[in-house]
Design a protein that fits this description.
alpha/beta, Rossmann fold, 10 strands
Length: 390
Amino acid sequence: MSAIGVIAEFNPIHTGHVYLLSEAKKHGTVVAVISGNFVQRGDIAIAEKRVRAKAALLCGADLVLELPVTYSMSTAQNFALGGVFTLKAMGCDSLIFGSECGDITELEKACGVLKSGKFSEEAEKLLGSGMTFAAAREKAAELAGLDSGVLKGANNNLAVEYMLAAENIGADFEYFTVKRQGAAHDSQISCKGFASASLLRKKLLEGDYGFCRKYIPENVSGLFTEENTADIKRIENAVLAVLRCRSIQELKGLPDISEGIENKLFSAIRVAKSLDELYNTVKVKRYTHARIRRLALNAFIGTGSAFFMKPPPYVRVLGFNPRGEALLKKNASASPVPVITRAAQTAALNAGALGLFQTECRAADLYSLALKKIKPCGTEYTAKIIKTEC
């Protein structure tokens, strides 16, 4: 049984994602690894992970797995590592992703340059000058001989990270890419029947469901309702309150923190009256807004750095259809890490893995406060596997 992997946030799912899933279907059983309730741009997901998992199953995925918060709200490298490791553990032999270039050869060429000594030498010098990681990488790759401009695209960059991470863990995937159509990443304008997830999140928060129904598949548009829409503004004071209780040492222990930025973060926390004020106060040339947002929300959740740039210690199943269930039964026993389908199974995890699951539980409990209808704590223990018939 051939299995192809997709790594996504589906935040929310839209016509572009459906196109990707339909292309994936041509190559086998589709395994989707999706972000949990906190996402890579340093924000909460627009809808709870199980809402998005159900949408994925109804739009073409066969098996949906969770990317733990340690990876879903992290650097592109750590995000990619968590995703490709999870897919490999579930027996996937290929990986499909969107890209601006739509050309695997160009992406492989970029990977080759990024592994070169010349690139490392140039990147070190540029980072030392205070450039952001993304800008330094693009410029260093150019100086090392990459003349295609491929690293200018956000989706291209993530695709390259998937390929590099897969090579690092020995995942011999066959790669497929779908050229991004219509609206660009984070575009605030719809185009040719496509709208960016960023624009759709904005419209959902504004309550413009009529606009969203044009781009969210009809069979799942009913999942993305006012009741299911999470808004970080609802927990803004809660985030600030928790941050004010964090010590310098706690901030220093956050994943992906360096250059003493914990001191600037600590000082900003003492005076900020809003999250935007906090982010803008901390902002420095070397750190992007997304990286600062991730630091703040990781401090809010209490995420440690124990699993930063290390493979996930378990695979967690969110849902499946009959085809996905068959793949799960076939491959779960061969997984190098435990496969969790019921929360009770986490009792058998080692201390580190159990700690990660407890962080996930805490993230879910805090996320619930951002919903219109707040849920009690403990939903990670009571939520059921999502099962669909097709």
